[in-house]
Amino acid sequence: MPKSKRNRPVTLSKTKKKGREHKENIVNSIREAIEKNDSVYVFTFENMRNLKFKEFREKLKSSCRFFLGSNKVMQVALGRSVADELRPGLHKISKLVRGDSGLCFTNLPKEEVQRLFNEYEEYDFARTGTLATEKVELKEGPLDQFTHEMEPFLRKQNMPVRLNKGVIELLSDCVVCEEGQPLSPESARILRLLGIKMATFRLHLTCRWSSEEFEVYQEGLEDSDVESS
User: Which residue intervals make up region (Disordered) (predicted)?
Assistant: First the structure.
């Protein structure tokens, strides 16, 4: 007997999509930050870790304001052309807000900002698809770093293991990952169990705008990229 359409479950915990009002709030917040700060930086990031970034932002909350989100919304706030930019020259950095980018507004000296970004890096466990930074191989024999309760889990990760008198034993050499190759879900889980961190969360400054100058920091980004993009 076919199921009645009247008996379909209804989810009561639906979340509203971020709409026009949310975007307008971001635009207004960015424009407010422009008025209150001397410099605007575009930065990119690799191996983003939300918790680590939150800690970095919290550390600098008294001197810097950060924005991450839709590149188009950030571009609109800055101005995408001379005609709609809030302050002269801002459209130049707007054109470099692309890919994994964010904005930083501050009154700190540029040397201090460069130092903070250049020195910052946090190591973390790599996720599936990340390229391995080294070869990791486990040799045949007892795996004393794991308790016997881990044996079923390790077997599910395609590791040739067995229990031998309460000790997990590797039946043959096992290559967890090869340098330069993407990590499989199983490899990523095993590396986490081994405590091996292969991902480095870094922030890279792309460019800086102030009322006095516009600077591009990353190699390969020329003035022509700004003018023609």
Answer: 1-22
pLDDT average, residue stretch 183-198: 94
Report in angstroms the alpha-carbon separations of 69 from 1, 18, 73, 102, 168. 49, 12, 8, 7, 46
**Nearest one of 139, 122, 137 to 198, comparing CA atoms:** 122
CB 57 within 8 A of CB 43: no
Average pLDDT, the chain: 87
> What average pLDDT does the segment 20-45 reach?
91
Spatial distance between the Cα atoms of 112 and 96, rounded to a whole number of angstroms:
22
Q: CB of 131 within 8 A of CB of 182?
A: yes
| Rounded distance between C-alpha atoms, residue 165 and residue 186, angstroms | 26
Structure tokens at 141: 């024999």
Tokens 């410099």 belong to residue: 39
170: CATH:
3.90.105.20
Q: What is the CATH number of the domain that holds 53?
A: 3.30.70.1730
Q: Using the predicted structure, report yes or no on whether residue 195 has a pLDDT greater than 90.
A: yes
pTM: 0.75
Q: Domain tally for the chain?
A: 2
Question: How far, CA to CA in Å, does 205 sit from each of 18, 101, 198?
Answer: 28, 10, 22
